[in-house]
Each structure stands twice: as C-alpha cells, then as structure tokens.
Write a structure and sequence with these properties.
It is a single chain. By secondary structure, this protein is an alpha+beta fold. The chain is built from five helices and ten strands; from the N terminus they run βαβββββββααββαα. Strand 2 and strand 3 form a beta hairpin. Helix 4 runs antiparallel to helix 5. It starts with 7 loop residues before the first strand and ends with a helix.
C-alpha cells in the first residue's frame, strides 16, 4: 500500500493488535485472470514465523476457494476511520481529509483440512465468545456430529503465514501540533474512538 513515511507503522505488536481488534478481513486473490475479493473473520497465530499468520475459512463455492496451495493472497484489516473537517484546524486554508488505521498482509496460502479445520472453527468461536462474558461460552461441541460433518464439507480452510505485514496509521501526523489537537477535539466531540489512537501517537 502507499505509505508516506509519516504514516508508516511496522511494529508487529501494534499490527497484531489491530488484527485482534478488527478480525473481519478483506481477502484478495487472483482467480482466472481477475482479482476476487472475499470477507471473513480470522484467527491470529502471532508466533507462526517472524510476522505471524492468520487462519480463516470461506464457503466452498467462493471463487477464492479454488486457488491452489501456495498461491499468493493479500489480506486487509480496516480499523477506525473518520472524516476530518478543516474547521477543526487552527491553521486557515486547510482542506478536508480522512484519518484511518489499516493493516495489510501478504503471503502464500496453505489449506487447512480435517481436524485442523474443525480446530479453526473452535478457535474462532472461542475468541469471539469470550468477548460476550459473563455469558457462558458457546462451543462447537454443541453441534451434532452429522451436522458438523456437513458444515465442514461446505467450507474451505486457509492459513496465511505473512511474508509481509505493514500498517498505515494516518492520524494527522503531518500537520502542526495545534492542528493535530484540533482534530482530536473534533473527533472526541463526535465520540470517535480514533481520537484515542491519535493521542497515543503524539
């Protein structure tokens, strides 16, 4: 992705933090000469290789499910974003912009099959159910075995070890401190969580 120096973030801990908080990803792959997109929640495996990996699944009917083992995939995680009004700047003559946080990863796809696919579903469910506490977590063990077998046959599992992982935190780092502070106040007035990220960045 296009990353001006002021906005580039390569700290793996920060990038993994974004993936954990915004697990629903956009997946891109080349299929029969055209770019196809898919959307899926992921499980982060932070200790697989130097940059980590993610696991996810798609419907077997999805065009991306036909890609061969080792095919290149790209994946994107869009975190918080917000419109920035020129009225929030102290400096006159400024123009509107958009602030945002995004992470992109690339790598060679591997298939996840058999017990690994079932474990992927269990890990994904567990990661999301814990966020619903104090509700007692739901587990896939509650699905009858025959129905689970049917469901597993209808999906394709993937693992994407990252060959590259990079972030872009566009948080008004390229404006004067008083303008940056004005944007923070403007976003706070709208209740936008991106304001907290901007405070951390300063």
């Amino acid at each position: 992705m296009y990353r001006p120096r002021a906005f580039a973030v390569d700290d793996i801990t920060l990038l993994h933090e974004v993936i954990r908080s915004r697990v629903f990803a956009t997946v891109a792959a080349m299929v029969d000469g055209r770019v196809e997109f898919a959307y899926a929640p992921v499980v982060l495996d932070p200790h697989e290789g130097p940059l980590g990996a993610v696991r996810f699944h798609l419907a077997a009917a999805n065009p991306i499910s036909d890609v061969q083992e080792g095919a290149p995939l790209a994946i994107s995680f869009m975190s918080d974003d917000a419109y920035v009004s020129p009225d929030w700047y102290a400096t006159p003559g400024m123009v509107p912009t958009w602030n945002y946080i995004t992470v992109e990863g690339r790598g060679a796809m591997r298939h996840v099959k058999g017990e690994g696919l079932r474990q992927l579903l269990a890990d994904l469910t567990a990661a999301e159910e814990v966020k619903l506490a104090p509700k007692k977590p739901w587990t896939i063990d509650k699905v009858p075995a025959a129905k689970m077998e049917t469901l597993l046959n209808a999906i394709v599992g993937f693992s994407l070890p990252f060959d590259s992982l990079e972030g872009k935190y566009k948080l008004s780092q390229n404006v004067k401190p008083e303008d940056h502070a004005g944007v923070v106040r403007g976003l706070e007035a709208r209740g936008m969580t991106l304001a907290r990220a901007m405070k951390k960045d300063t």
